[in-house]
Amino acid sequence: MATRPHFADALAVFLDHEVELIVVGGVAAVLGGAPVNTLDLDLLVRASPANIERTVAALRSLEALDRDLAGRRIEPSVERFSARGQHRFTTRYGDIDVLASIGRGRTYEDLQPRSRPVPLHGRSVPVLELEAVIQSKEEAGRPRDHLALPVLRETLRLRREG
Amino acid sequence: MGGCAPAAGLRPAVPATLLSARLLPVSPPPPLPAALDAEEPSLPAVDDSLADPTLIRALLALTPEERLDRLQAHVDGLWELGLGDAPPLR
Questions:
Q1: In CA terms, which of A2, A13, A23, B10 is 20 to 30 Å from A89?
Q2: Which residues, other chains included, contact A145 with Cβ-Cβ below 8 Å and sequence gap of 6+?
Q3: Residue B3 burial by CB count (10 A; 0-12/13-18/19+): exposed, middle or buried?
Q4: Which of B44, B36, B42 is nearest to B84 (CA)?
Q5: Distance from CA of B12 to the nearest CA of A (A)
Q6: CB B71 to CB A15 under 8 A?
Q7: Which residues from chain A sit within 8 angstroms of residue B70, using beta carbons?
Q8: pTM for the whole thing?
Q9: CA dihedral of B31, B36, B38, B39, whole degrees rounded to 10
Q10: Looking at beta carbons, which residues of chain A come within 8 Å of B41?
């Protein structure tokens, strides 16, 4: 059964664990002003050993389990994350994708200059800027991503108009 | 980072679903994909018709925090309608 997303609370857990992250995907698009819907939180994390450990600790505190189609109960681990670099979790605050790269293999280090701190409920959260969200969806090439592009591009155009 | 749902002061005066349905239209969830790396469990609800300048300007007039609260209210509305308890979308 899907768990109701609680975006702000989920982010707070990662920040409490000092995870180096950038909010990407649909939530980043919404924060950038785009009227899109999403049920999951996508996080691009620095893939350093120390940060992976912090990420796994945050996921464990969220009671995260790998979203495994075979129904196996798979808890987050440093070894699994290091092996794949991309995991989709069900947590008590909703579904969370933790990614080591997005789009055409762009990492945290690649995209950090294209993120900006966004104040959310008293915290500062790094969020990928809308231009980079659009680029990542163009590069991902999935049908759903392409469906979102007209809205994202129009949002960017209107933002530039001021 | 605040509570699970938008703080009481940020809650819209009208039911969240009604308000969010206006700002964040939603279409039925896509069918279950079979592959592990299939589509994300999102409600895309985005097509050319949603590139509505009026709608976008309404969101751009909000702060990022208000935008996130609006998305959260929309999601809460889905769950209140029982739509969030559907099987995972992948």
A1: B10
A2: A137, A138
A3: middle
A4: B42
A5: 17
A6: no
A7: 30
A8: 0.80
A9: 80
A10: 2, 39-40, 95
**B11 falls in which pLDDT band (50, 70, 90)?**
very low
| Residue A139 pLDDT > 60 | yes
Nearest by Cα to B71 from A71, A29, A146, A83: A29
Nearest residue to A97 via CA among B38, B33, B24, B32: B38
> Is residue B7 pLDDT above 80, yes or no?
no
Distances in Å between the Cα of A41 and the Cα atoms of A22, A89, A148, B42, B54 are 11, 10, 16, 10, 26
**Which residues in chain B have their CB less than 8 angstroms from residue A42's CB?**
40
In which band, very low, low, confident or very high, does the pLDDT at A111 lie, cut at 50, 70 and 90?
Answer: very high
- Minimum distance, in Å, between the CA of residue B14 and any CA atom of chain A: 19
